[in-house]
Amino acid sequence: MSEYVSLLSCSRNTRELGGIKTVNCGFTRNGVFWRSDTLGTLSAEDMEKLLSSGMTTIIDMRTEAEVKKAPDGTAELEGFDYEHFPITEGSGVPESLEAVPRSYMTIATAENMPKVMKTMAEAEGGVIFHCTAGKDRTGVVSAIILMACGAEEESIVSDYVVSREYNKERLAAFLAAHPEVNRETVFANEKSMRGFMKLFRERFGTVENYFEFLGLTAAHADMIRQRLIGTDEFTEKLSAFLSDFGSGRTMVLSTSENDRVSSRMMSVVRIDDGFYFQTDTELRKYRQLSANKNAALCIDNIQIEGVCEETGRPVNSPDFCEVFRSCFKGSYDAYSGLENERLFVLRPAYIQRWVYSDGVPCIESFDIPARKYSFRKYSEYNNTYRGDSL
């Protein structure tokens, strides 16, 4: 059986907007927003699933003609708040793949988009928002919501392109009936979403600016953010730690290969919850990281353990260049543009910091995969470290 199964039997592309990685190692919540394609006639099981999940507000973004052709299955049912906010802008098939991002911008600035976003922010229960295929209009709304929550670009793109799998049969039938259409314009292509996000950032800068453009307020963006990610002790404490860390520090990087450990000072910058550094492909640390991606960064009373990923040349990452140049201009000018220089990011799995509280030594720990936070006096630590002696 395919892993791409809609949450509802009356649709093909209904899925959670939960479980998507955000900044500070967080994830979006399940049971808040579902994205979907057309909702047909609900089965008894569909009804029970929607009501038990609290998904009672339905936002239908299809045109009048689309609704007339395939009425929404919840429109006349008790227990649901059905809202029809037709978005006609960008509802046609773009003439080329390059035109898709511009089409998505017309969707983002559509006349009824303020109603969509206001309803999502203010709805009392869970919200299902949908168009016909759950890809274009729904994909744009999903991307904006996830940007508001600080989701990584890769996570947003991944959430978008998976519509290709859910819609395989539908799109195959459409292309068979319309052989003149460029298949790349109707399949969810990552270039389309990356292009849209680039245009969105260039025009609005932030999601808060976008909401003000819609005639709403930054508070509406925050309401969506609070609904979908909320706050807990782990998130609050990790946010405080990352803020204390700042944008950049000189740290010791420890790597290993074949039981040989090497350590050296590195210029490290933080972007969201990733720790970035650059190195030459001819150096030992590059070879060690290629063979063993597990590494640790240390400074003073802080240790950050995680897995490193090579992301390309430093000069090809505008975000890195901006932060690194502001923190380490000498290193940036001397090394970042060299042909052999490569950029790495360490994604933390475990962070430990020694702090003093009222003069008492304490250990603050973040277990990232488990999302567990602890703060204990050293005298209460019982000489244990993940089951091993300190």
TrEMBL record:
Gene3D superfamilies: Electron Transport, Fmn-binding Protein, Chain A, Protein tyrosine phosphatase superfamily. One of its GO terms (molecular function) is phosphoprotein phosphatase activity. Residues 111-170 form the Tyrosine specific protein phosphatases domain. Signal peptide: none annotated. InterPro entries: Prot-tyrosine_phosphatase-like, Pyridox_Oxase_N, Split_barrel_FMN-bd, Tyr/Ser_Pase_IphP-type, Tyr_Pase_AS, Tyr_Pase_dom. It comes from the Bacteria. SUPFAM superfamilies: (Phosphotyrosine protein) phosphatases II, FMN-binding split barrel. PROSITE patterns: TYR_PHOSPHATASE_1 (PS00383), TYR_PHOSPHATASE_2 (PS50056). Belongs to the protein-tyrosine phosphatase family. This is Protein tyrosine/serine phosphatase. The lineage of its organism: Bacteria, Bacillati, Bacillota, Clostridia, Eubacteriales.
